[in-house]
Each structure stands twice: as C-alpha cells, then as structure tokens.
Amino acid sequence: MKDSMWTSVLIICTLVVVLAFVLCWLPFHVGRYLQFRSLDAPSPLLSVLSEYCSLVSVVLFYLSAAINPILYNTMSWKYRGAAARLFGLTDGQQSRCRTASTLKGEGSNGWTESTASF
C-alpha cells in the first residue's frame, strides 16, 4: 500500500514539474513562431505580439529555474528533510551524512558518501 502511494505522489510531482516547465517555455516558442510568421507577411500586430512574448519569456526563464525547488519542497517530505539537513536546520539528528576518510595509498584526505538516501 505504501509503495503505491509513493508511486502516485512521484507521478503527480513529475507531472506538475513537467507542466510548469511547459508553461514557462511556451511563450518563448509562441514568440519565435510569431516572429517567423511576421517575416513572411509583415504585420504590426504580429510584431507587437512577438515582442510581448519575448518580454514575458525572459521573466519566465528565471521562473522556470526557480520554481523546481519550490515545487519539490511543497510536494515532497523527503525533499524537505534533505534540504533541512543540507542547510543544517534539523534538530541535531545526524543520520546518513558524509564522512571524511583517507584514500588508500595516496595519503590525502577525501570525501566519501556513506549512504545516499533521501
């Protein structure tokens, strides 16, 4: 039962991320299409729409890059836990963290990851 619930949450999260990506990049492609069409038959309306889509797409480029962590944080408790451990916001629990070790034969300190469970 728990596996099927986890699978459905994963599918929903993936669909939301893909939908956000499509919505953020759609004005760019619409603007490029309108710009291409305005070259064939010059029209002031198509030129204005193309410029408007270009302006909106610049804002949505940055939103596309920033929205994924926000979506993951709101939809996944595992992501929230991993982000809290990354930024040191947990209540002192040190489970599954990176440890320092010495690489064999080289005598230099390196980092190995003991487990990678999120």
UniProtKB/TrEMBL annotation:
Where can this protein be found? Membrane
Membrane topology, record value: Multi-pass membrane protein
Q: Where is the G-protein coupled receptors family 1 profile domain?
A: 1-72
Q: What is its main location?
A: membrane
Q: Which InterPro entries match?
A: GPCR_Rhodpsn (IPR000276), GPCR_Rhodpsn_7TM (IPR017452)
Segments passing through the bilayer: 7-28, 48-71
| Keywords of this entry | G-protein coupled receptor, Membrane, Receptor, Transducer, Transmembrane, Transmembrane helix
Q: What is this protein called?
A: G-protein coupled receptors family 1 profile domain-containing protein
Q: Whose protein is this, by species?
A: Ilyodon furcidens (goldbreast splitfin)
Lineage of source species? Eukaryota, Metazoa, Chordata, Craniata, Vertebrata
